[in-house]
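Hi support team,

I've been running sequence recovery on a batch of backbones for a student project. Most finish fine, but this one hangs at about 90% for roughly twenty minutes before it completes. I'm not sure whether the input is malformed or the queue is just slow. I've pasted the structure tokens below so you can try to reproduce it. Let me know if you need the job ID as well.

Thanks,
M.K.
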């Protein structure tokens, strides 16, 4: 068996496993779920996992089993909020925290030992 054929076979197996896991997670009746998985893999042919999943989603939509949440305009609602990828405001950070910690310790120790004016 050539390397290309092996990769194609492995791609089919990954697509098959992904589609079957998706159908299983939907908790469909056993034979109905297997039938959907088979039909989606037949539609997608020797394609990628993404193509197989698109075929499965279109089959689910055709049969009214699509359980996505839509708003009043018919647009699917995302399962996570939109990300705000703006820039962060620059802020100075301590490049030597051990030094800062030691200085604070000595100042606090001097203040406790000699009074409030000694630690400055």
């Amino acid at each position: 068996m050539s390397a290309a054929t092996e990769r194609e076979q492995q791609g089919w197996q990954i697509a098959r496993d992904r589609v079957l896991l998706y159908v299983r997670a939907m908790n469909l009746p056993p034979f109905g779920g297997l039938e959907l998985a088979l039909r989606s893999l037949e539609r997608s042919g020797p394609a990628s996992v993404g193509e197989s999943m698109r075929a499965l989603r279109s089959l689910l939509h055709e049969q009214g089993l699509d359980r996505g949440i839509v708003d009043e305009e018919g647009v699917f609602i995302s399962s996570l909020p939109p990300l705000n990828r703006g820039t962060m405001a620059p802020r100075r950070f301590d490049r030597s925290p051990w030094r800062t910690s030691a200085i604070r310790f000595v100042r606090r120790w001097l203040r406790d030992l000699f009074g409030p004016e000694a630690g400055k």
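--
Follow-up from support: It reproduced on our side and the slowdown came from queue contention, not your input. The mean pLDDT is 82. No action needed from you.
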